[in-house]
């Protein structure tokens, strides 16, 4: 069972999921903006209504026929007191408070206040009443030396606003989740088609050029993509087949003259007196070397064509390494040291090619390594891996990629024997097996690591 | 031996034909697949050398037809291409051995000899090889010469076994690599020469009798009493 983390990673890699996530996020942001605007609008609308009501109540109280300020004041005070009593007697305490008349900061009638408003008009005061820290919306007028305060608690208003805001927030979140889920589910349907295309391309990359992508019935952009890709794959397959035939034909054309050359030399050798035969033998060796180089190039092309993958069989890396080391005939283990696990390390592979790969690497290591130091060969099981290390001058980091190219030789090696094909053959073999070759510094020296994919469970 | 050669490259065909004749064999040469197939079916040969690429009927098809006609004539394929891929293809078509061009004539001769000598008795039934005073016990993995035991390691034993089974005939370096080390590529090491050299010192130099392991210059090695 794949872990939760790996599951999430798989989901994250799907474009459908990312799209759904982006939609949900966008929706959330938009909802938040709308909510904020609505929130502010609602609040100010509610407060406006309260302000109007406060103003009306204040004016209702201040209706009087009297002109004299003292009498107006007296009426005001008694009005407030009466209203107070009336309200309380009727159990309508909301109307009763706060309603206050102040002289300076001192309450003359009505509720006693903890905080005094500074200026006339509409305003919000927190902690207006003692023993409460509610916010109050008040309307204040001055009348001579008296100050009338009409107020209303904002508690209910705040509750309403909070309710609305909360509702919007939860609703928005729920909808966003629904958008995300819906988007993912819809997208996964498409994702299956994309994954099928991905799998098909994987097969192509692995060398099965006859693979074609599945084309559905939808006629949408994915189907058009698949159709176009199939056309391209058809051309690719034709090109590769033509190239393969081309290589084979070139091989036939070029090897025949070399074969003739060699035969002619052999004839001459048969007619040459023994004292002079060495020169002819040298010439024959050169012809063989040319043919050998050609063979190697052909072999690399053949391996790259990928058809040998069909002949893979379960192969033990330990046995491969031992067979390769055997070819160097070092019974005392002075020149080559092999370390392999006791149990078999089995992968699906071409035994002969792997032996050739390992032999190549060991040969290289011996050629370029330090003479007194042994070459080390390691076989590991998890992941399946073969490592060959020497203690020679190594390869400068800048050239490590290039040495895997055909015919590439380091400047210092140009005079030594060899074609420069060994490592590129190794790379072709590694690629055929889906393995990765890494060149690293062995401090000093070169360490070549070939890591194979984990065998399927 | 009577040898059938089907090769369209005239120079190569002459080269092979002359070499075979000089070695004391009779060689019939055909330049296209159809004629070659007709000859193989109607006449008796000990072994055949067939090029994979031929005008008319190609080499693989020729051999397939041959096998379909129940002809067990041993066939060695010649080709320009290299790589086990084609060898397996050739073997699956019914061929018995494979040689890539260019090749040394001695290599061809050694392999043709090996193919022609398909003993009716199964070689697997032999448990002991004996010749010229040397006794190889294949079950016990032990070797004696004139009754004296030899201490050989695994690969040395296999080399001696291969040489003795092919007694009198030449085994080339390539053939030894295939039979003893089971590889079909050149490892660019002197492993074969080293083993022959050690085998010599244990088998020949340590004893008074004649040398049994011979180097045939330009060809390979042979066990001869």
What does this 3D model show about the protein?
The complex is a heterodimer of chains A (457) and B (225). Chain A has helices at 4-12, 15-62, 69-89, 93-96, 155-205, 221-271, 277-305, 317-326, 351-368, 422-432, and strands at residues 99-103, 106-110, 121-126, 135-143, 146-153, 313-316, 336-339, 346-349, 375-380, 385-389, 436-441, 446-451. With 457 residues, chain A is an alpha+beta fold. Chain A is rod-shaped, with a radius of gyration of 46 Å. Chain B has 225 residues and is an alpha/beta fold. Chain B is 40% helix and 22% strand. Chain B has 8 helices and 12 strands. Chain B has helices spanning 10-22, 33-42, 59-68, 84-93, 105-116, 154-165, 173-180, 191-205; strands spanning 2-6, 26-30, 47-51, 75-79, 97-100, 128-131, 134-137, 142-145, 148-150, 171-172, 213-216, 220-223. In chain B, the strands form 3 sheets. In chain B, strands 2-1-3-4-5 form a 5-stranded parallel beta sheet, with helices on both faces. A 4-stranded antiparallel beta sheet of chain B has the order 6-7-8-9, with helices on one face. In chain B, helix 2 packs parallel to helix 3 (59-68) and helix 6 (154-165) packs across helix 8 (191-205).
């Amino acid at each position: 069972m794949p872990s939760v983390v790996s599951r999430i990673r798989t989901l994250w890699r799907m474009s459908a999921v990312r799209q759904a996530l982006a939609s949900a996020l966008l929706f959330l942001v938009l909802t938040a903006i709308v909510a904020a605007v609505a929130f502010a609008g609602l609040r100010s609308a509610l407060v406006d209504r309260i302000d109007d009501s406060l103003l009306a109540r204040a004016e209702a109280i201040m209706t009087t026929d009297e002109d004299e300020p003292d009498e107006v004041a007296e009426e005001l005070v008694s009005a407030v007191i009466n209203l107070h009593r009336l309200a309380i007697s009727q159990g309508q305490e909301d109307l009763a408070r706060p309603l206050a008349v102040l002289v300076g900061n001192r309450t003359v009638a009505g509720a006693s206040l903890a905080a005094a408003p500074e200026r006339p008009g509409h305003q919000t005061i927190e902690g207006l009443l003692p023993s409460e820290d509610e916010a109050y919306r008040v309307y204040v007028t001055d009348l001579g030396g008296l100050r009338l305060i009409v107020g209303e608690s904002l508690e209910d208003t705040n509750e309403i606003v909070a309710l609305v805001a909360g509702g919007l927030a939860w609703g928005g979140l729920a909808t966003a989740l629904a958008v995300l889920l819906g988007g993912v589910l819809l997208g996964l349907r498409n994702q299956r088609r994309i994954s099928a295309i991905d799998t098909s391309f994987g097969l192509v990359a692995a060398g099965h050029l006859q693979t074609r992508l599945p084309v559905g019935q939808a006629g949408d952009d994915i189907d058009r993509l698949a159709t176009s890709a199939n056309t391209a794959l058809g051309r690719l397959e034709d090109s590769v087949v033509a190239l393969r035939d081309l290589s084979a034909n070139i091989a036939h054309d070029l090897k025949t003259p070399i074969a003739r050359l060699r035969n002619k030399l052999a004839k001459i050798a048969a007619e040459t007196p023994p004292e002079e035969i060495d020169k002819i033998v040298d010439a024959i060796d050169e012809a063989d070397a040319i043919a050998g180089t050609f063979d190697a190039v052909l072999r690399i092309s053949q391996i790259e064509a990928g058809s040998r993958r069909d002949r893979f069989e379960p192969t033990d890396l330990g046995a491969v390494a031992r067979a390769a080391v055997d070819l160097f005939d070092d019974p005392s283990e002075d020149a080559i040291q092999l370390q392999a696990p006791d149990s078999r390390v089995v992968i699906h592979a071409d035994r002969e090619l792997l032996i050739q790969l390992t032999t190549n690497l060991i040969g290289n290591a011996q050629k370029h390594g330090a003479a007194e130091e042994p070459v080390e060969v390691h076989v590991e099981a998890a992941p399946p891996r073969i490592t060959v290390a020497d203690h020679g001058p190594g390869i400068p980091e800048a050239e490590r990629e290039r040495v895997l190219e055909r015919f590439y030789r380091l400047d210092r090696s140009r005079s030594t024997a060899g074609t420069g094909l060994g490592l590129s053959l190794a790379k072709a073999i590694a690629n055929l097996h889906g393995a990765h070759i890494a060149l690293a510094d062995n401090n000093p020296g070169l360490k070549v690591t070939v890591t194979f994919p984990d065998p399927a469970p | 031996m009577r040898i059938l050669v089907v090769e369209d490259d005239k120079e190569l065909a002459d080269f092979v034909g002359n070499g075979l004749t000089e070695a004391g064999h009779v060689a019939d040469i055909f330049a296209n697949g159809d004629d070659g197939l007709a000859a193989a079916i109607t006449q008796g040969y000990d072994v055949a050398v067939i090029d994979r690429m031929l005008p008319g009927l190609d080499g693989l098809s020729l051999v397939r037809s041959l096998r379909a006609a129940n002809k067990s004539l041993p066939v060695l394929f010649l080709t320009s291409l290299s790589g086990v891929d084609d060898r397996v293809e050739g073997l699956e078509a019914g061929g018995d051995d494979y040689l890539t061009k260019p090749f040394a004539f001695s290599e061809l001769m050694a392999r043709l000899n090996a193919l022609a000598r398909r003993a009716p008795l199964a070689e697997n039934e032999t448990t002991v090889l004996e010749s010229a005073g040397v006794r190889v016990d294949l079950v016990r993995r032990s070797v004696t010469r004139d009754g004296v035991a030899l201490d050989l390691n695994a690969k040395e034993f296999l080399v001696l076994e291969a040489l003795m089974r092919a007694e009198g005939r030449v085994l080339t370096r390539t053939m030894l690599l295939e039979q003893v080390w089971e590889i079909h590529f050149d490892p660019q090491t002197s492993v074969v020469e080293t083993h022959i050299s050690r085998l010599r010192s244990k088998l020949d130099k340590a004893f008074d009798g004649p040398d049994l392991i011979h180097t045939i210059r330009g060809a390979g090695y042979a066990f001869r009493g």
